[in-house]
């Protein structure tokens, strides 16, 4: 890995970690998700980063892919996953944590287990580590926890970690959180993200959650749509974005324009990922870089 690239990954990670600590400090039960999102957007900017994707603020059975719009009234309650992406020169830090917002600590144990799984993985991630070793230790940690505490948590097997590349969040390699046979060697930049639940351990795709990405280079006829598309290509490139960012740029008829672009297949709008039995979900995530015979957890 080039020196410049490594430095950008490290800088992005440092910013993402600071934003994560900041978010932990401001989030209170019953706060509006839009206020959390706006504060995080401002913080990333203040620290000299760019968002790699809109912050995902996914509540309860929603595992991922929800970001609030400007007039969103949704409030934080139950368990909230805060998934933050920061990039520097397109090099990404992808990191997430979960907060139990209940008065009786209903999801405290699930979050603790989830953190324990990530920390057990962190201990084995080093140069030469094979992809399956992540899943092996993750599942072993979960099984031991269930046995010791007589609990019944399960891993969401359909959600995985992934390699990272410049302006690319899912860069090909899938890092499963359960026992597997993948003997590929982990190298370069990648994110590890176990998801734990008490439900079925699977997800389905729900309604759109307000996060879009450019997916085709087809031309568009509508004049307003063309103007918005030009901005998207220049500013977000192949990184996901959301309506509230575009609204700040002063475009008109945005909802209409985005719907045209989605219908034409030029933009993709991500569906929310929802736990199959609608059980609450916890997520934790860190980004790692393995380069020059060393491992760095950039967001830890
Ligand atoms: Mn993430
Ligand atoms: Mn990720």
How would you explain this protein's 3D organization?
It is a single chain. This protein is an alpha+beta fold and 300 residues long. It folds into two domains: 3-206 and 278-297, Alpha-Beta Complex (Creatine Amidinohydrolase), CATH 3.90.230.10; 209-272, Orthogonal Bundle (Arc Repressor Mutant, subunit A), CATH 1.10.10. Helices cover 34% and strands 28% of the residues. The chain has seven helices and 15 strands. The strands form four sheets. Strands 7-6-8-14-15 form a five-stranded antiparallel sheet. Strands 2-12-10-11 form a four-stranded antiparallel sheet. A three-stranded antiparallel sheet has the order 1-3-4, with helices on one face. A hairpin with a 2-residue loop joins β14 (286-291) and β15 (294-297). It is globular and about 60 Å long. The protein starts with a helix and ends with a strand. The mean pLDDT is 97. One manganese (II) ion (MN) binds at residues 83, 94, 96, 193, 285.
């Amino acid at each position: 890995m080039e020196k410049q690239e490594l430095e950008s990954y490290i800088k992005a990670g440092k910013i993402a970690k600071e934003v994560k600590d900041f978010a932990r400090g401001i989030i209170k039960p019953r706060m509006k998700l839009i206020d959390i999102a706006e504060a995080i957007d401002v913080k990333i900017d203040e620290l000299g980063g760019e968002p790699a994707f809109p912050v995902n603020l996914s509540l309860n059975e929603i595992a991922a892919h929800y970001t609030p719009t400007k007039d969103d009234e949704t409030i934080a309650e139950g368990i909230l996953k805060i998934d933050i992406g920061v990039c520097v020169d397109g090099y990404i830090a992808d990191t997430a944590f979960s907060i139990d917002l209940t008065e009786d600590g209903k999801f405290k144990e699930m979050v603790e287990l989830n953190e324990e799984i990530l920390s057990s993985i962190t201990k084995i991630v080093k140069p030469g580590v094979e992809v399956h070793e992540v899943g092996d230790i993750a599942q072993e940690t979960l099984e031991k926890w269930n046995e010791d505490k007589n609990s019944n948590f399960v891993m969401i097997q359909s959600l995985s970690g992934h390699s990272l590349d410049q302006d690319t969040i899912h860069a090909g390699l899938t890092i499963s959180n359960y026992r597997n046979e993948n003997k590929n060697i982990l190298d370069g930049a990648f994110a590890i993200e176990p998801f734990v639940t008490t439900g079925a351990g699977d997800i389905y795709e729900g309604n759109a959650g307000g996060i879009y990405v450019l997916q085709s280079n087809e031309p568009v006829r509508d004049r307003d749509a063309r103007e918005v598309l030009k901005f998207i290509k220049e500013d977000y490139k192949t990184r996901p974005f959301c309506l509230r960012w575009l609204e700040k740029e002063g475009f008109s008829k945005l909802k209409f324009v985005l719907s045209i672009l989605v219908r034409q297949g030029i933009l993709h709008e991500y569906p929310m990922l929802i736990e199959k039995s609608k059980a609450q979900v916890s997520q934790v995530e860190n980004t790692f870089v393995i380069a020059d015979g060393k491992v760095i957890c950039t967001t830890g």
